Amino acid sequence: MMSDMPSETRSSPQGEAIVVGGGAAGLITALALAAAGAQVHLLAPARRPDPRATALMDGSVKALEALGLWAELRPNASPLRVMRLVDDTRRLLRAPEVSFHAREMEIEAFAWNVENEALNDVLERAVATRPAIARVEGELAGLRRQAGQSVVTLGDGRTLSAALVAAADGRESAVRRLLGIAAPTRPYPQVAVTATLEHERAHEDISTEFHTETGPCVLVPLPGRRCSIVCVTSPAEAETLMALDDEGFGLAIETRTHSLLGRMRLVSPRGSFPLAARTAEHFSAERTVLVGEAAHVIPPIGAQGLNLGIRDAATLAELVADALRAGADIGSDAVTQAYERRRRADVASRTFAVDLANRSLLSELMPVHGMRGFALWLMGRVPALRHAMMREGIGPSRDVPRLVAGKPL
Ligand SMILES: Cc1cc2nc3c(=O)[nH]c(=O)nc-3n(C[C@H](O)[C@H](O)[C@H](O)COP(=O)(O)OP(=O)(O)OC[C@H]3O[C@@H](n4cnc5c(N)ncnc54)[C@H](O)[C@@H]3O)c2cc1C
After folding, report:
1. How far apart are CA 360 and CA 409, in angstroms?
2. What are phi and psi of 100, to 5 degrees?
3. pLDDT digit string (tens) for the chain, length 409 residues
């Protein structure tokens, strides 16, 4: 697959990019741009530990495969072949249990779950071996445009310049702030508690979501008898969970998940993440695009966040590959504005769907519970509806970037 891609070592004054940020979105953007034929400076401070796991949807796996990264990641990833939704509220109108099977979609798995430490290890190793990527340790402090280039100033006064800046510097993006792009925040009255646990019984590649009045609590398979959990709950309950000793935490999660997997034991640090949604008003400006959480933050419900970030990276790489083939400037308005146009609908529809799913759980209104239950009941019985829901959950069916379709750049 890689042999069909433009050479990573091709260089031209208009073919250089700076990627700001070394989280998963930044690392994948750097690797995708290098595969597109750009010369890349990857500017980020030293990596921080990340206790979470990420469910990578089928399209994201295809993109990582096309970038030559999946073979190394695969042994660390567990397939999610079945997704089971359980209504664990104590409400009068409760939804029936529904299971979705990946084989109905003729795919091996909806997603593959991998610990972020393993994911970032593989991505960082790949970055280190790509001749077209120069890793620069530091933080962006300033950004200006000058003579057809973007000039980035680092905290220590060094400068870097390139035709295009891809800002993947996270939810508090300095690039976004320097460009004056607003990103209104919508907070939710919830916190996601995360951890990895070992358990007694095999998970059989089934991801189970327990829907409660405060949000979903999800068991997501990892290799072996291990699961990552994302428990979305009230801030007070999250505080209680975080304050428990390790043994108490294992017991609390076992209780919340009705001992489905037997005894549970904590085997990782815990994480606690207040929920919010945030979308930048623009994803592009002159010679700059926003990627990953710099552009969009959504609650960790339905495992969409980084999958959107991977589609950002794949779309940008495709536009850059096409510009390089045409001998054009990769930071031109034609590239940055096409990026903005192509990413809007995907981000807006995922943000809307996650918000709706979350609010239907939090709502105290009986008709909302009734509608939710009815929708799930219908999905359990009407294959066409179920398939449409599964299709949308995995990723968009329109304007799919080539890498995400498993095709070369
Ligand atoms: C509990 C939880 C569970 C999740 N589960 C899933 C899931 O299953 N599937 C999924 O797809 N998504 C999931 N997500 C979302 C996913 O984790 C995020 O989308 C992803 O981590 C965002 O990556 P990022 O690279 O955009 O940002 P970050 O990981 O925040 O990286 C930002 C980077 O920018 C750097 N940086 C910041 N400022 C500067 C600067 N001035 N100069 C240079 N560098 C800078 C930082 O050091 C960092 O390296 C989950 C999120 C949460 C909270």
Report:
1. 40
2. -110, 135
3. 333 343 333 445 578 999 999 999 999 999 999 999 999 999 999 999 998 999 999 999 999 999 999 999 999 999 999 999 888 776 555 566 788 899 988 889 999 999 999 999 999 999 999 999 999 999 999 999 988 899 999 999 999 999 999 999 999 999 999 999 999 999 889 999 999 999 999 999 999 999 888 888 999 999 999 999 999 999 999 999 999 999 999 999 999 999 999 999 999 999 999 999 999 999 999 999 999 999 999 998 877 899 999 999 999 999 999 999 999 999 999 999 999 999 999 999 888 887 877 776 665 555 555 555 656 655 665 566 656 666 666 677 788 999 999 999 9
Atom number in ligand 1 closest to CA 171: 30
Residue 406 CB neighbours (<10 A):
15
Please work out whether the CB of residue 37 comes within 6 Å of at least one atom of ligand 1: no
Q: Is the CB of residue 24 below 6 angstroms from any atom belonging to ligand 1?
A: yes
**Residue of 27, 50, 54, 159 best suited for mutating to test ligand 1, as the one with most atoms within 8 Å of CB:** 54
Please count the other Cβ atoms lying within 10 Å of the Cβ belonging to residue 261. 24
pTM of the model: 0.91
| Dist CA 219 CA 284 (whole Å) | 36
> What separation, in Å, do the N-terminal and C-terminal C-alpha atoms of the chain show?
9
Question: Does 169 sit in the ligand 1 pocket, CB within 6 Å?
Answer: yes
Q: Which of 18, 158, 241, 306 to mutate to test the pocket of ligand 1 (most atoms within 8 A of CB)?
A: 306
Domains in the chain, CATH or no CATH each: 2-185+276-405 (3.50.50.60)
237 ligand 1 Cβ < 6 A:
no
